[in-house]
Amino acid sequence: xxxxxxxFEKIWRDHVVLEEEGEALVRVDLALIHEGSFHAFxxxxxxxxxVARPMQVYAFADHYVPSTGRERGMAGIPDPALREMxxxxxxxxxxxxxxxxxxxxxxxxxxxxxPPELGMTQPGLVIVGxxxxxxxxxxxxxxxxxxxxxxxxxxxxxxxxxxRKPKTMRVTxxxxxxPGVTAKDVILAVIAKIGAGGANEHVVEYAxxxxxxxxxxxRMTVCNMSVEAGARSGLVAPDDTTCxxxxxxxxxxxxxxxxxxxxxxxTLASDAGARFDREVTVNAAELAPMVTxxxxxxxxxxxxxxxxxxxxxxxxxxxAEYATALEYMGLAPGTPLSTIKVDRVFIGSCTNGRIExxxxxxxxxxxxRVVVPSWIVPGSMSVKRQAEREGLAExxxxxxxxxxxxxxxxxxxxxxxxxxxxxxxASTSNRNFRGRQGPGARTHLVSxxxxxxxxxxxxxxxxxxxxxx
Length: 469
What we know:
The chain is of the alpha/beta class.
């Protein structure tokens, strides 16, 4: 009798080359790199190694490119150090015949946005990306994980990776999401429930009726932030939604290969009776729009709530953590979250820079005008062009938003886009760590619709207040 396997265990089984001393050599199907890859290429040059399979490596200019001045090309990057980073990526990609989605490419964008929209990301693949949010790609049923410089060097040189087999966790979300509640609220609620380290050393599979009802882009948002709970990866089993999303995309299989792929993808589901190391259940019908109040995605609560008092923390360590967070954020316990004023709004990132996110934000933006500086940064040039075709860009401009070019922008603040010390933002990005959006910057994570509502009111606002206006 065969053993019941989880989705992750099936992918692991199909990719392990050999096992040795608690680790496995795993075959890597796709490697995704950005400007920070110069460390890996420097080691390759030093050791006389090349790139083993350049056709399975894709490069993206996203972290260090500006969100303005794109029409000037490389000259539009005012900081010489940043310009050098982008130049290095171009040179390394050219030297090793790696497909680059650079500044002059019509499909340029974030490395967690472009591959799915082009059909590179497919169920059953092992994908290693040079960024912690590579877990985004798990939304399509791939096992995707981030890698550091030394790990990526090994991947580039061998198209394999030495990995320890992670534990498994299933997060089951049942019920219909209430109006105004989105995928961003779902994942913030999950992280608040299990904690920033609640999924350490685990691959998390998201399941249940609420997950099956999510669009592919919404699933990407959920998987994207799995790492914020400490997870190695996030996964959703492929289904009809996945197949419909991939069909016809430039890098997706075609004709007979498509039929073969569909047959394989249908096997990629956790078997009945498969055992997970941990199970978590969430009632999706009880969720509300979420905001973060502290310096970790775990510090999240319904927008109808208040800033917590450190005394409400579960233990001494958390009490100290809460106190530190409130001091940094400049907030007092008991403050209603919906009264917190913001100085800037950012809508974009690999978490919420897709067309579906911009549609949601535009649905709120058309109800008024911004009262604080607010940026829209599409996740890719494809998203930008589609938003312009649909008239969303005009909606944003008409409401006073700045319409910018694709890149990581204010999510990482490596690129010249940053907040001033003490400035407070409502942001659709994935991290609210201290200094993440600039030294001394204060970040509140929200959904695209919630961010748009904050832009119109100048404060954290329950988007449901504007939905009926």
